[in-house]
Amino acid sequence: MKIYSTMSRKKEDLESISKNKIKLFVCGPTVYNDAHIGHGRTYIFFDVIKRYLEHIGYSVFYLQNITDIDDKIIKKAETLNCSPSDIANIFEKRYYEDMASLNINSVNLYARTSDFINEIINQIERIIDKGFAYETDDGVYFEVSKFKDYGKLSNINTDELKNKREIAKTDKRSSQDFVLWKKRSKNEAIWDSPWGKGRPGWHIEDTAITEYYFGSQYDIHGGGLDLIFPHHEAEITQLESISNKPLVKYWLHTGFLNISGSKMSKSLNNFVTIRDLLKELSPISFRFYILSSHYRSHTEFSKSDISQIDKSLAKIRNYLENLCDKVKNLDIKYEKSSYGPLENFKKDFYSGMDDDFNTPKAIASIFTFINDSKRDVGKIAIFEIFNILKFFEEISNILGIDFYKKEDSNNSEDLLKLIDNIRKKLRKNRMYDLSDEIRDELNDLGIFASDDSL
Length: 454
Description:
The chain is α/β, with parallel strands linked by helices. Helix content is 47%, strand content 14%. It has three domains: 284 residues, HUPs (Rossmann fold, 3-Layer(aba) Sandwich), CATH 3.40.50.620; 97 residues, Anticodon-binding domain of a subclass of class I aminoacyl-tRNA synthetases (Four Helix Bundle (Hemerythrin (Met), subunit A)), CATH 1.20.120; 36 residues. The strands form four sheets. A five-stranded parallel β-sheet has the order 5-4-3-10-11, with helices on both faces.
């Protein structure tokens, strides 16, 4: 299969460093607030990426960090008159709950920054020993000018950056230099270090954690597009300065989930939290909505678009329900498929997923198959129906969506009776076109509506 790497800006053949084993790291949340649906988009995609890689035979270890040391956490704690650890613990727990609600369950290990202070200090010491960092009165900084490859991931022009950035009130040698250790005297989440009391900078947290679990090199690093600069650029700079080899083989980044034309962001205060959204929409609908666009694309979020997603889900579910009705109480083993449309369906679905995890293409193959096979339902052998149902189970596991689960299904029979009554009244009033339109829309969703009883 091929995946698009941000570093090369092209699709590359996926070849793991260790045979059939993949080490995957994705930047986790800074736990000072609830996760928003932009975060949800990123984590849904990487959940599917891991699911699919395992489906095709890889053993994947998925690591995610939890940033529980940060100025934003400290500021919120001061506002609420509590400790930073209290804030971090509350929102870390809520983050796990949000991920579970979206059926994101593929992360093997969550690593808190506060558990890796010794590793962070050790990494900073080695960077200093290599001559890439220096100490000032207020901290320890990485000297960017000494790392010749700085900017290679983002393609940023460091000369232009130097002119645009101003040096803050610090002893930094250059505006581009970034902090590895912040010296602090106030009792606000601080630790002892060779440079005095303080806490780590944001960028060093991730490389200390990944080096501890993965070593100096691993397969895939993921995150949102907004993290490329400066965060991921700094990660490369830190670890490659002491290892002299590429930190990551493939860099994968999700596009923005926009709202009203702007990137959804806590700093812009234009975000919708996962919790708030799920008060109005089902998690399955949101997940299917997210996977209906390519992970690298920028997507404009619209609740109205999800209503169309619900129709698409209903079409799949009703199609499967009709097939299940045909094979109820039959004990037939799965057999090698010989049904042509199913074989084409499998080929098209996997072709989409193998093309840089193209979930829209894979999902489109589902509806192509449903539309094509409807004409053959009466002719498909029973064991072939079992094979179709089996493949849909595989798809459900890959996409993390239970296509067999019907939400609010208890009311479905009453709803159909109500629709029949409405259509009878329409026909009684000679409004045949509207009655037929309702019938056709129901049939498109896989819900059989007949005029025989009208």
